TrEMBL record:
Keywords: Amino-acid biosynthesis, Chloroplast, NAD, Oxidoreductase, Plastid, Serine biosynthesis, Transit peptide. One of its GO terms (molecular function) is NAD binding. Its EC number is 1.1.1.95. The keyword Transferase does not apply. It catalyses: (2R)-3-phosphoglycerate + NAD(+) = 3-phosphooxypyruvate + NADH + H(+). One of its GO terms (cellular component) is chloroplast stroma. This is D-3-phosphoglycerate dehydrogenase. Its main location: plastid. Transmembrane segments: none annotated.
Length: 602
């Protein structure tokens, strides 16, 4: 393939969409039934550009590691992928490089913006955050681009909690200031008299993983611990002897306040003038969460007025903060450069946690640490696996039966199961029906991440219905039906009495089968291509069609006939391994008894 170089980019000719998959530049590919199925670059540039950047010619995906990552994680990645460790990239450099990458791993120092996803040209499949907070990743843009975001939610919990306690104790005893003063040649024993922690009330704001661990440790120091978290279960708090209180109660009671909530639109600047005005005079604040949860200007005012006696901050709205920052320079403020997660142990831990999630996602597995996709436990996933393939095939079949009308706008998916509604997670199945409905008629790539978004964007209303069956709930599902309303069909027999295109499928011997088409009972394996014929039921038709296909060297894998009654209307479904030639199809259409027929590519 001819490649020309322009600056940092390698450009090649526009790729031919009709090229067989096996000749794509990106030869690794996941199975289509995978929820994170990767359609190669050549088959679906999402934002199709006149030129497509081609990354590499070997079989491995490329992972860009944009910030320092523990060695154990790097080794894990290298077993599966080409790993490009490029630190301190400018936003422009990141946007340039990203089009050559299948995965990106960052910490808190890299902003993964909408531009990054747009610049990836659809190639970026997964962003791994080697840590907890994902406020530096534009999750909406990731979801819209079908890019999975995973994080490492557990491996740095203890490190962050320990750093919170370190800041709490260092602040109370003026450790940083006293250290600086000795180094400046002073000996200020009276100036740096501290305050005791024992018996004081600590309010933990955000009682999640880190907050709970800080609470445990603070109790060990003899503090009274209360917590505010609108979403935390009371039994978890009471199990470690912590009382959950309202926001205002926490502010008005606490001697010390430690922040542990994520930065979200709801928590942004929640510690503002109003909040500071409700605090006890002389309160001391620790922030190892995110700088953005505090209005930094309001904190300076509260420090200057004495409402806040001291603050210890690991995080800032802008990182690194400007050197002349009044907050950083304030004598009652202790600062660290976002070190909460920076222990040897935590960095090795997050590196492994994120590398495993990224490799898994690149292999098409569902990640337990997915941030923008439903987390489906492994056992549920394996039980649903055959139905995932069925759901996609039914969507693909149904949409190819549409001839016209108002366009596909209203689709109902019915799940027949003996399981209770809470025991059947249909999110995955719905996503796969959407994938099947949209991919054959567009260049959009649909996966579990962007399925609902893509359907909504295309004005496709998906409703779901449960058909409750008696019997053993051992099987997750008996059958799935897909109904498309308000459309005409190119195969009128696919329209059921309800007036909707209706297809029904079951899993037989682990394989997806079509079991009903419109009002006709059929049974054909949903593989390869399908020929659907409607004819007046009479002897000899099967033989005629069979011999036309044999003459065209097309292997028939399956054939069934469903009829309303003997000698009445019948629907013949024929599974074929190869696609018949137009001549063969013409001959089938010319058989007098055949009233309509259609070829469906699954
Ligand atoms: N400084 C550092 O290096 C580190 C900072 N962090 C920060 O700490 C945050 C917490 O981490 P984890 O405990 O692991 O996350 P988590 O998700 O286990 O806990 C967050 C808690 O905040 C609560 N929360 C959400 N909105 C709230 C609100 N409006 N008011 C009070 N609570 C609210 C949630 O219900 C949840 O329980 C992360 O989002 C991250 O920003 C985490 C690790 C290291
Ligand atoms: O995990 C988090 O949320 C952190 O803030 C840690 O950030 P870092 O990976 O050290 O840049």
């Amino acid at each position: 393939m001819a490649v020309t170089t322009t600056g940092n980019l390698m450009f090649t000719k526009p790729l031919n969409k009709s090229r067989p998959l096996s000749t794509c530049s990106l030869s690794w590919r996941l199975t289509l039934s995978s929820p994170f199925a990767v359609s190669p670059l050549c088959s679906r540039p999402r934002n199709a550009k006149s030129f497509v950047v081609v990354a590499m010619m070997d079989a491995k995906p490329t992972v860009l590691v944009a910030e320092k990552l523990g060695d154990a994680g790097l080794q894990l990645l290298k077993k599966f992928a080409n790993v490009d460790c490029s630190y301190n990239l400018s936003p422009e450099e990141l946007c340039t490089k990203i089009s050559l990458c299948d995965a990106l791993i960052v910490r808190s120092g890299t902003k993964v913006t909408r531009e990054v996803f747009e610049s990836s040209g659809g190639r970026l499949k997964v962003v791994g955050r080697a840590g907890v907070g994902i406020d530096n990743v534009d999750l909406s843009a990731a979801t819209e681009h079908g890019c999975l975001v995973v994080n490492a939610p557990t491996a740095n919990t203890i490190a962050a909690a320990e750093h919170g306690i370190a800041l709490l104790t260092a602040m109370a005893r003026n450790i940083a200031q006293a250290d600086a003063s000795i180094k400046a040649g002073k000996w200020l024993r009276n100036k740096y008299v501290g305050v005791s922690l024992v018996g004081k009330t600590l309010a933990i704001m955000g009682f999640g993983k880190v907050g709970s661990e800080v609470a445990r440790r603070a109790k060990g120091l003899g503090m009274q611990v209360i917590a505010h978290d609108p979403y935390a279960p009371a039994d978890r708090a009471s199990a470690i002897g912590v009382e959950l209180v309202t926001f205002d109660e926490a502010l008005s009671i606490a001697d010390f306040i430690s922040l542990h909530m994520p930065l979200t639109p709801a928590t942004s600047k929640m510690f503002n003038d109003d909040a500071f005005s409700k605090m006890r005079k002389g309160v001391r604040i620790v922030n190892v969460a995110r700088g953005g949860v505090i209005d930094e200007e309001a904190l300076i005012r509260a420090l200057d007025s004495g409402i806040v006696a001291q603050a210890a901050l690991d995080v800032f709205i802008e990182e690194p903060p400007p050197t002349e920052s009044k907050l950083v320079q304030h004598e009652n403020v202790t600062v660290t450069p976002h070190l909460g997660a920076s222990t040897m142990e935590a960095q090795e831990g997050v590196a492994v946690e994120v590398a495993e999630a990224v490799v898994g996602a690149l292999k098409g597995e569902l990640a337990a640490t997915a941030v923008n996709a439903p987390m489906v436990p492994a056992e549920v996933l394996s039980a649903l696996a055959p139905f995932i393939a069925l759901a996609e095939k039914l969507g693909r079949l149904a949409v190819q039966l549409v001839a016209g009308g108002g366009g596909v706008k209203a689709v109902k998916v019915s799940y027949a199961s003996a399981r209770g509604p809470d025991e059947l997670d249909t999110r995955l199945l719905r996503a796969m029906v959407i994938k099947g409905l949209i991919e054959p008629i567009s260049s959009v790539f649909v996966n579990l991440v962007n399925a609902d978004f893509t359907a909504k964007q295309r004005g496709l209303r998906i409703t779901e219905e449960r058909i409750v069956l008696d019997g053993s709930p051992e099987n997750p599902l008996e059958f799935i039906q897909v109904h498309i309303a308000n459309v005409e069909s190119k195969f009128t027999s696919a329209i059921a009495d309800s007036g909707e295109i209706t297809v029904e499928g079951r899993v037989k011997d682990g394989k997806p089968h079509l079991t009903k088409l419109g009002s006709f009972r059929v049974d054909v394996s949903l593989e390869g291509s399908l020929i659907l014929c409607r004819q007046v039921d009479q002897p000899g038709i099967i033989g005629k069609v069979g011999s036309i296909l044999a003459g065209d060297n097309v292997n028939v894998s399956f054939m069934t006939v469903g009829r309303t009654a003997p000698k009445m209307q019948a629907v013949m479904t024929i599974g074929v391994d190869e696609e018949p030639s137009p001549e063969a199809l013409k001959k089938i259409g010319a058989i007098p008894a055949i009233e309509e027929f259609v070829l469906i590519k699954l």
